[in-house]
Design brief:
237 residues, two-stranded antiparallel sheet, 9 helices, 48% helix, globular
Length: 237
């Protein structure tokens, strides 16, 4: 049912993209806030989601997202990390969708032509707000930089799989066609979480690495890569 789409809880997504779960919830599902008007009356407002997720919010007991949602979140993280207000991020996403379609931030076309979207957004009346953020030093290429996409493998213009450690270290991959998009050992397909769990059960030492390698019939170095990856995820939680 979920093959080819990926399936991630918000907690899993938070660890993988290094963003607090609370922030992801606000970005993907919107949030309410209160202001005080000139008559000192409270006014309730709702900030809408940045985009509609691949899975409907009422489809499961807990909120889950897909592979394209996950990759798009990485780009939003960069915008926010550079100090862009959500208003500006929202406008960038809306403009990019008009040019590149759904999930625009991780299409190959956007990777190579991101500055065009930036200029369009600036012409929408946000130039002062954007430039004031970095005393006229902020440029879009600082956000949409090659390193942001270095681990993404494309088929045509569509992101197909993600190597979270970068393509130079192809140990771990997230592929929506394998294990619902959960992190697996590249070219082998064993979930890193399974290897890590067995490693912990066997004593979490060098001997445990060897035992797990024998159990799954894979090289010890692959088990070690999976363990290191899972440990890093837990540090990011």
């Amino acid at each position: 049912m979920y093959s080819g789409t990926g399936f991630y809880s918000l907690a899993e997504a938070a660890r993988l993209v290094r963003v607090p779960t609370k922030a992801i919830t606000r970005w993907l599902y919107g949030y309410s806030y209160t202001t005080i008007d000139k008559d000192h009356e409270k006014q309730q407002h709702f900030s809408a989601p940045l985009w509609k997720t691949e899975y409907a919010t009422d489809a499961f007991a807990d909120k889950v997202i897909g592979f394209r949602d996950l990759l798009e979140l990485r780009v939003v993280r960069e915008f926010v990390g550079h100090g862009l207000p959500l208003l500006v991020v929202r406008r960038c996403l809306e403009t990019a969708r008009q040019v590149y379609g759904d999930y625009p931030m991780t299409t190959h076309k956007f990777c190579t032509d991101g500055k065009t979207v930036f200029m369009r957004v600036m012409r929408d009346g946000l130039e002062k707000e954007l430039l004031d953020l970095r005393k006229r030093q902020l440029v879009f290429s600082d956000i949409i930089k090659p390193s942001l996409y270095s681990g993404i493998e494309y088929e045509g213009d569509t992101a197909r799989r993600w190597y979270p450690e970068g393509k130079s270290r192809r140990n771990i991959v997230l592929d929506p066609l394998q294990q619902f998009g959960k992190p697996v050992v590249a070219e082998i397909g064993v979930p890193t979480e399974a290897l890590f769990s067995n490693f912990k059960v066997e004593g979490a030492d060098q001997a445990a690495l060897n035992i797990v390698a024998r159990i799954f019939d894979i090289p010890v170095r692959k088990v070690q890569a999976a363990v290191q990856f899972e440990e890093q995820l837990r540090l990011a939680a």
